[in-house]
Amino acid sequence: MRLAEIIQAGFAVILALAAWLFPISDRRRTAVTLLALIAVAAIALVRVAAFVLDPTTESILRDWLPAPLTLIPYWQTGQFFTAPNTRFQAWLLASDRRIFRLAGQSRTPTWIRLSIEWAYALCYPLVPLGLAVLYSAGLQRYADTFWFVVLVPTYVCYALTPFFPALPPRDLESGPRRSKSRLLNLWILQHGSIHAISFPSAHVASALAVALVLRHYLPVAGYIGIFIAFWIAVAAVVGRYHYALDVILGAALAILVYAAWHYHLIPSTLFTAPAVTLVAHP
Q: Of the chain's two ends, which shows fewer C-beta atoms within 10 Å, N or C?
């Protein structure tokens, strides 16, 4: 199995086991367990497909499967959220207010407000877009490395979330004026989120991790990604989707995991051999 497959299957199963230890309802335990079974079954199905698919197609499927599976532990951890920790939540709000006082309260131009909403919306497609950039550059052989650097900080954020339950600041105070772009983001969150923050911010962790991997292999694309990740972080706080501390810790986790890999603190033997290339050799 590839390292990304081990991480995703293992994390989903661990959350399923934890669900039977945490004081949550049987319905929630069942949901967490079923989601884990979906993740394991999807990974197993792709492995079985190797017997009927050509090596190139099978390799591509394994490169891309982690993208949809990334959402499964997010929905799993959402089942652990029953009520916010009001003291922790109040502390996060107070910390934000201190930061906003230091930053000042100047009026934000309309174009900046719009760009912030657009930037936040990018957190959803940014991970598969990052893999697509590697593919377009002929670097799909580094897909497993890409997923390791992205999944580890993202999943650490998910793992910590049940221990720091809090509602997002947009639910506790008035946010920016509701433009069409903001209404779209709020609609997505209403129908697809767990209605609680991920602490630290998994959005920021994954966005910055993607950018750092790209910077390693494709510097120009990487620096563009870093700018986008920075703007996503700003959007998360200014748009009141996350608290400032969520964002700071999410970014710190991404940097820590990337640095551990970049400076060879992660054994290279953990990563799979290069994937089958898309171009047939004579």
A: C
